[in-house]
Every structure is written in C-alpha cells, then in structure tokens.
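[job 0412] stage=fold_complex status=start
inputs:
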Amino acid sequence: MTALAEAGRFPARSQNVARALRAVLPALSLILVLLGIAWLNPRAISYLGFNLMLNLAIPIALATLAQMFVITVNELDLSIGPFVSFVGCVTATMLRDSPLLGVGVLLVCIAIYAGLGALIHLRRLPSIVVTLGMSFVWQGAAILLLPKPGGRPPDWLLALMGWKPPLVPFPIIAAIVIAAVAYFGLMRTSYGAVLRGAGGNEQAIGRAGWSLLKIKVVMFGLAGVFGVLSGLALIGTTTSGDANIGNGYTLLSIAGVILGGGEFVGGRVSPIGAVIGALTLALAASPLLTFMHIPPDWQVGANGAILIVVLAARVLISRREARR
Amino acid sequence: MKLALRLLATPWIWSFVGALLVFLATIIFTGGVGAGGIVTAALSLAIFSVIVGVGQMFVITLGPGNVDLSLPANIGLASAVAMKTMDGNDALVAVGLAAALGTGMAIGIANYALIRVLRIPPIIATLSSSFIILSIDISYGRGLQIKPPPGFANFTNVQILGIPLLALIVVLFTVLAGIALQRMVYGRSVLAVGQNMRAAWLAGIRVERVRFFTYVLSGALGAIDGALLAGYFRGASVDIGNEYLLTSIAVVVIGGTSVAGGKANVPGIWGASLFLVLLLTMLNTFGVSPGLRLVLTGLIIVGVITAAGGQKALR
Amino acid sequence: MAEPGDIIKLGGVEKRFGAVRALDGVDFVVHSGECVGLVGHNGAGKSTLMHILAGTGTPDAGAIEILGTAQTDYSVIRARQLGIRCVFQELSLSPNLTVAENTRVSHASLRGIGWRRRAGALIKTKLDEIFPRHGIEPGDIVGDLPIGRRQMVEVARAFTVTDEPLRLVVLDEPTSSLDARTAGQLLQFVRGAVANGLSCILISHLLGEILSASNRIVVMRDGKVVATDATSAFDRDRLVATMGGTVRKPRQAAGEGERARAEKPVCVRARPQGQADGRELRAHEGEIIGLAGLAGHGQTRLLLDIFESAERRRPGVEVSGPVALVAGDRQTDGIFPLWSISDNIAITSLRLLQRGGLIDAAKESSLAAHWRQRMGIRTPDVRNNILSLSGGNQQKVLFARALGSDARIILMDDPMRGVDVGTKLEVYDLVRQEAAAGRTFVWYTTETEELENCDHVYVFRNGRIVADLDRSEVTEEKVIQSSFAEASA
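[job 0412] stage=fold_complex status=done
writing structure:
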C-alpha cells in the first residue's frame, strides 16, 4: 500500500515544544491583550474594570462552546447567532410573564436543535445550508416575538448575572466554571472520547458499534443547550431584549473556536481554549480597541486583524513543527 | 414526451418550477393584477443575486470548506468606491466601474493570500477580511450617501419590452459563465479540484492558480454587483450588501450546485434567484409580516435541501 | 477455551460493486485453533470477503455461519459479540484521540470512574505482550505517531479483551508498515496465540510470512477460491503459480537493446531527500525503472519529488521533459467520480484539445475513442460515468490519461493494485511498447514479479536507496533481502 502519509520521524523534543506552543497560544493571546489593556489603561485592571469588560464575554463563551460541539463532529452552525437572539427574546418576554411557557419553549428549541442533528445525519445534508436556513427561521421568530426592542428578563436571572462576589469578578468565575464543565464532559468522560473520535474517524467509530445518529443528536443537542444558556446570560446582562442582539455571535463563535486551537475537521477541539478565545475576542472587540484610541470605524476591522495575527502565529508554529 | 422527461431530470429545472409556482400563487391571489410588473421587478432584483451567485458558485465548487464570506463587505465598499469615483459625472462611469472592479479584485487577492500563505481556512479568512473591509468602507464612505450619475442610474433601470436591459446582459453573462465552466480549461479545472484536489494536482492541474483565479473572480463579481446596486438603488451604503451573504449561498445550493464541490450548475442560479425574489413578493402580497416571511423562507430552504438529500460518502 | 469444530463457515458468498464481481461464489471455513493464510493478488477478493466476515459489508448472496449458527441479521456489533475482530489495511484509529482513548472506543465496557487508567493499562499490557520494547505510551496522540506505531496500536487493540470474547482475529496486511523486527514479533505472537486456541486469518503478500505463520493456506483469484491445503503442502513456487502469477519470461542477458538504451540521454535524475551516500536514481530515455522495497519506504515520496520538479525546481531532481503520474490509490489520487470516462481521460490533456480558447468536443471524443481502443477499456460508451467500470478498467483510464498527454516521463505509483491479472498483462505490454517508442517510465510496485518488466531496479529502505539492481540481478529474494537490510550510514 503506498503510504501517502509517510512515517514521521520528528525528533521528539522539537515536536513536543511545537505542540506545547500551539496549545498555549490561546492563553498567550489573552495575556497579550490583557497586557495591552493594562499598559494603556491601568485602571481597567481592577475588579470593576474586569466586571465591565468581561460581562459580555460570558454569553460569547457559551455560544462559542455551542459552536465547538458542532465543529467537533465536522459540522458548522451558521444559525447560532439568530438562535441566541431568539432565546433572548423569549427570555425577555415569556420567561418573565409566563415562566412555564417560556421554559417549555426553550426546551422545544433544544429539541429542535437535536432534531436538526438527526436530520443532517439521516439525509446526509450539508450543515452549512441547513443551519443557514434555520438562521432565517430563528431570526423571523425573534422578530415575531419582539418586533421592537424591549422586555425584561426575570428577576432571578438579573440577580445571577449581576452578582458581585468578593475578590473575583463574576464573569471570571463563570468562565472558569463553564470551561471546567465543558472540559470535563468532552475531554475526560468515556463517552466524550467517543464523541471526539467521531470527528476524527467517523467510519471507525461506526464500525466499533457506536450509533453515529446518537452522536450527532447529542452534539447538536448540546449546542442547543449552550445556545439557550448563552441567550439567557446575554439578556441577563443587557437587561432588555432585541431581535438582533445576538446575530454577531455566529461569526464570533466560529472565531473563538479557531482561536482556541480548534480545527474545522478532525475532531480536534479544546473547550478551555475556546473559552479563552471567547474572552480574548470579547476583550479585543471593544475594551482594548477603545483604550488604544482606535477610532470606532476601525474597531471592527481590528477584530479581523487580531484573528489573522493569531492564526498566522499558529501557522508559523505548525510550519516549524512540520519542517523537521 | 421524452424531451419533457429529460428536462425534468435536469437538476436545475426544479428551481424554475418553484419560481413558477410561487409566481402563479401570487397572481391567483391578486386576481391577475400586476402580473407584468411583478415579472419585471423580479427580473430586476434577481440579477443582483445572480451576479454574486455565479462568483460564489465557482468558489463553492472548489471543494468543501471554500466559501466567500467577504461578499457583503465587498459589495458595500465597491459601491462606495464606484460612486465616489463617478462623482455624479456620467463621463466618469467607466472609470468608476474600473475602480470598483479593481477594489474587488484586490479583495480577492487578499483573501487568497490569507488562505494560501497563512493557511487560514477560507471561512475564517474571508470572514476576517470582511471585518477589515467593513472598517475601510466605514471610514472611506464616511456615511455620506453619494448619488450615482443620472445616466448610470437610468441605465440600470432601462427596460426593453418590459424586460430590464440589465437582466438581458446578465443572462448573456451567465451563458458565458456556463461555457467557461464546461468548455474552458479553467472551468474544468475548478470541477476537477472540487471533486478531488489531490487527484487534480496529480493530473497536472495548477491547483493553486485555479484557486487564486476563483477568489479573484468572486471578488470582482461582488464589486460589479456593488456598483450596479448603487446605481439601481440610487446611492451607495455600507449595508447595501448585507442580505447577499446568505442569498449568494442559498441561490447556489438551491440552484443545484453541490456544497461538496465538483458539481456546478449555472442556469439553476437564475431559477433560484427568481424563486427567492418571487417568494418574497408573494409573501409581501399575502401581507405576511416580516418575521413570518423570514420563518417561511428559512423553512422552505431547509425543506428544499432535505428533499434533495445529500451526496453519499464516496467510500 | 477453544470449542471444537468450525468457528466460521461462509458458503456461496457473492458480492458485486457495480460492474465488478468482487466475490463469485466463495466457500470459506476456519476451524478453532488454526491460522489460515489467505493469499491472492490485489483484487482477488480477499478484503471484500473479510469485510463481509467482519459485518461491515453485506453479501449479495450466500450464507454466513458462526459457531454453527446461521446468521440472519449479521452486523458489526453481532460479529464483535461473537468474538470476531478485524484489523484492516485502512486503520480504524481516530487520529485526534490518544492510544488509551482509542482503546476505549473499542470497548463499551471501559467506562465510569478510572476508565482512562484501565484502558491505558489494558493496551499497554497487550503492547508489551506482542511488541516488547515498543516505546508507545497510552497517552500518546495517535495522529502524532508514525505509521508503524499506529499499526502496532491497531493490532494490539484487536487482541485486547474486556467483556466480549475473542475467538477469531483477521489480520489484513498487518506488517505492511512494520519493520523486520516488529513484524517478527507479531508473527511469533500470532503463532503462540493460535497454539492456545485462538483462530486467525492472516492476509499478506509476503509469502514468507504466510508460509511460516499459518497452518492452512487458501488461495483466491478473481473472486473465487482456487486452492486450499495445509501449509506444509505449499512452497513459494506453487503459491505463486496458483495465485496466477505472471508467466516468468526467460531472463534476458544484458543485450543489444540494453546497451543502446544506456547510451540514450538521461531523462530523470533524482536523489531521495536524506540520501547520504551519493546514490541517485537515473533513467535514460526509453527505460523502465523500477522502485522496490517494503511499502511506504520513500518510493512514493521520490515519485512526488520528480513530479513536482516539473513545476518548480527541486534540489537533487532533474527532468528533461513533461511528467505525468499514474496514481495507485484510485479513490484518493486518481478518479474524478462525478465525471465520465472521457472526461477522466481528457483532464491532463485539456490544453492540447483547445481550439480558439475552448475545448474542442471533437478532439476530446477522438482522444477518448483512441485510448479506449488502445488500452482495451471495456465499456459500451466512453460517456458513461467512470464508476461504471471495473477496478481494472478504471486503472486503465488513469493510464490513458497519462499516456494520452504529451508527457515524456511517466511515473507509476503502484498502479496495479486491485487489478485483475488479465488487465495487468495488457498494461505491461503497453508500457513496454511505449518505452520502446521513447517514453521513460519510473515504476513503483509492491508486487515483486512486476519488476521483471524493468531495466533497472532501485530498492528503498527508510526513505533512501539501499540497492541498485540491474535487470539480470533482480530476483524476489534479492529485493526482499535488500529491503530488510539496514541502510549504510
């Protein structure tokens, strides 16, 4: 058999160094951004500062994890943004006025996400197109529910998101908890290994007797769960609803997963990296740029530049890895 | 009879059938009133999706993972560049178009550089560049609505026997695109790369040149679309291209091009564009609210792709 | 504990893939406590048969009996429950998971607290048992391991036992990426396990392995079983003859033809990356050069280097004209599955078929018609989809593609895999004709007999040329010997 992937004979040390560098890259980027902020505006490095800068990071992190689950099985979710918007609208209306109905709707949403996973698997559909169509559906539903911005989330949610624990700002605690849960679930459990394995070699997992249908349903269902959490967290922070509020999360979540060291195919993802990536994006998206006095016109462009720089760094490191 | 059966078997016929059904539903609802106007308006609007659809089609056909997400930003920037360069002066129309074209091609080159040199996946590469392009557009356009030169604006609205001239031109363009796809080395190369990039390389195709050209082409077509949109809607704006991101992908897929690459369909883009535009018209005519319109459009897209099913894995 | 009687019994199994009849009524039995060697040329049907046994393929006709019970709803899960494990050539490991995690995937019962430790211990123990001093850690990510180690992990994993019994292990070319030492370790382990009651089916094209490790040999050819007997009744020559090996032509001494060729200009010069001793491949115009040695030892890499050098300069490689390549792995490297036969042939020659900037339909169809006739591609219409052809005919299309272009140098990447004997003979003739007409061939092959078509053979090991054999010196023993020898520093 011709070996198109020929034997690698990398000196172990150099390969390990490169791999370690790549794993650490998301954290490095975050630290760089923090250093930049600290240098430009030392007062931002404080309890209040972090609270303000990071309070929107939690919904982004949750949406990024939702996207990560889908990317793990070699799919892509282009509807997560409008989905978060819709959940936000439900939170700002039903959850306060008729909580039981609100909870029911959210559970149905998760079921729909899981059902999409089944549909995509059974009919071998391209997830890009299916989720594209669903993005219209969620967007339309959000507009139907809340044609004009308004509404208010339930008090318990406001209390949770507005909680100010001593010493460590809530967003940081939340980020750690979220990352820990996702990390444990996907990377440490025995079924998590199977889920990731399906991204690496779907056929092999199927041949070993695991149900690929169940795997897709689980991953999309998890995306639905984290999407719901993201919408809840978002409205809990902004305190009012808007049909367009989460739309940017689609691209942000994809960027967060990739920044965090994940790859589109192969089942190689990092939950901790994804959360760190989301935090980096949240910080770089507004606070850093504001402190750098980058004119608002250029802030969105700077986001693109940051993405490119981090990815370029990753490529350079991989090149050194492969060149040997 | 045989001809009819052969016709039904072609992948692109269904989008036209869909367009026709939607049109008929609208006409029935209005009792036949304004049928001609609907057709003209549909043709006028559909061309904008068709132009970017063709570009996106070539990109998507390159293979899984290839998509140009920088189109909306491209369209926005190109519309501003075109209008500013034309400066309301009919004599500068050609220059303005050339400037827009140059902008689009530069965007395509930049996208390809990110993909090739930095090895960034196309989705992220075009996404990142779209952020940067957006910023450039915002600061360049300064939010001012620059009006197109009157001659240019009129040109985009000219009709012959109720059919927009621009539509005829774009039909000619799509015919040429179809020829390029099937009968030119470039088109065959794209189809080969999309089916199996490695096999294409081993068969002697200059894969990277083909990819380069395709991304530049997509950029160029996006820019032309931007200039024309500014002419048609009588003013450039940053947001003018926003809806074309999803639309460009949708018309390609509904039109019968395979998302997995290697199989492309040009006539279907027309059918799908007309279908979507007429769908919008129909829902508007029925008095459907914007929210419900979006929901129905989305459900129909999902329905169409589900009915079509996907490609079987090749192993 | 071994149970008496047959472990598996396949009767009258048939399987078609489109036009290809992969299995044409096969009867196959394995008893407990025996190792059956299954041999046959590429395309004889061995892998297909094993896929049916493993439950990953369904037969079009025939009966499957396991442990005396006829199987109706046979599947992968059922096969595992009955104790049948398979190690195929396409590795079934997830490259993004660690060795321990991949082991877990194979055993549903490895769950709960401490699963990772248990899985790691399980695979480590088995690796120690089969491949002492293997150097693999359970925490290693499979994608980072070289292919030899990956194969070791896959093989070891097949022998691990948790709650499902282990009765029969199918090993399909298990040593293809292993070096001599580890290959020996594996075969020794298999002999021991079989002596303890395990059953095994061993597929290998290294006849020496089959003869040393199996109790009984089954020979397949073109989808049928043509011989089955105790191993002691076979020797290499009888095996080769039964497999339908190419007729051995009387070896020609270096004659006029060869001396004339040596005077022709050098078309290709290529030094493998990492070659320390100055040896390089040299091909004169009109020569057929063979590349040999164990699979995956640098032959393909050198072919690709030569191929790339036509596009941009590469250090150590020089070619004198356009180059074309005939791929061996049709699916990943060759076929455009959505296209017709004609399109698949024309793709390399598109520039030559142009007229006024557009591809001329008439030129295209005459090219297709010419090569259909010349290569003997069996099809009613060249406009049919390429997948309607049998494997051998698909390979002919790939040849037509390369030969139909203006390339003067043709590289062949083990293209005769999965091809029936009849097709092979036709293609060999064509290659010799084209070489006589002045084209140069560089031919990598894993079937040692094919090297008899070559004027000169380079044997590879670990990415370097270790032996340089003239036509008269080429024998299977010499080639195998060189391929296991260590490269001189």
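[job 0412] summary: Chain A has one domain: 2-323.
[job 0412] exit 0
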